[in-house]
Amino acid sequence: MYMLMKFYKIEELAELMGFTGKFIRNQIKEKKLAAVKIGSEYRITQEQLDEYIRKNTTTNQETLVED
């Protein structure tokens, strides 16, 4: 069976997550967020977003830095 994948545009993902498009592009450029380049634009799959969130999730055991 063929499954359709969800692809987010950079601006869609930025709005969804409360970031700027520039921040998302920098995460891709720094190879912190995986993306698929289609033509001249990048798209992020739900799986790539899930992996990014997993890698950047803190645990209760980590020490938070105070401001």
Provide a descriptive summary of the structure in words.
The relative contact order is 0.17. A 3-stranded antiparallel sheet has the order 1-3-2. Strand 2 and strand 3 (41-45) form a beta hairpin. It starts with 6 loop residues before the first strand and ends in a 12-residue tail after the last helix. It has one domain. The model has no long low-confidence stretch (mean pLDDT 89). The protein is built from 3 helices and 3 strands, in the order βααββα. It is 40% helix and 16% strand. The radius of gyration is 14 Å and the shape is globular. The chain is of the alpha+beta class and 67 residues long.
Keywords:
40% helix; 16% strand; alpha+beta; three-stranded antiparallel beta sheet; 3 helices; 67 residues
Largest sheet: 3 strands, antiparallel
Low-confidence stretches: none
Give the overall shape.
Answer: globular
Return the structural class: alpha+beta
Residue share in β-strands: 15-25%
Nearest-angstrom radius of gyration?
A: 14 Å
What percentage of residues falls in helices of 4 or more residues?
40-55%
Tally the helices: what do you get? 3
| Order of strands in the sheet with most strands | 1-3-2
Beta strands, count: 3
- Average pLDDT rating: 89
First CA to last CA: what distance? Answer: 51 Å
Number of domains: 1
Following the backbone from N to C, one meets helices and strands in this order, namely EHHEEH
Summarize this entry quickly.
The chain is built from three helices and three strands.
Topology:
Layout (H helix, E strand, L loop, with lengths): L6 E3 H8 L3 H9 L6 E3 L2 E5 H10 L12
